[in-house]
Design brief:
Layout (H helix, E strand, L loop, with lengths): L1 H24 L4 H5 L5 H10 L3 H15 L4
């Protein structure tokens, strides 16, 4: 959970600093953030193919929700 929260902050800061280019540049870090999660390879693929800030943020929120009850 903590790694995903850090990933959310990282994506947000990259977007604030450099816009969509910043978000695309941090994709290489996602393998570290999702390692150890159930279905890590699927999450890694989805994050790597996310096209923009909003889709990455949504995916990271979805990961958090699969880790705990989100209703």
């Amino acid at each position: 959970r903590e790694k995903i929260e850090v990933a959310l902050k990282h994506v947000h800061l990259a977007f604030e600093d450099k816009g969509e280019k910043g978000v695309q540049a941090i994709k290489r870090h996602f393998s570290k953030y999702v390692s150890g999660l159930r279905a890590a390879s699927i999450w890694r693929q989805k994050l790597a193919t996310a096209s923009n800030y909003q889709s990455m943020e949504n995916l990271l929120q979805e990961i958090l929700c699969t880790d705990e009850a989100c209703h």
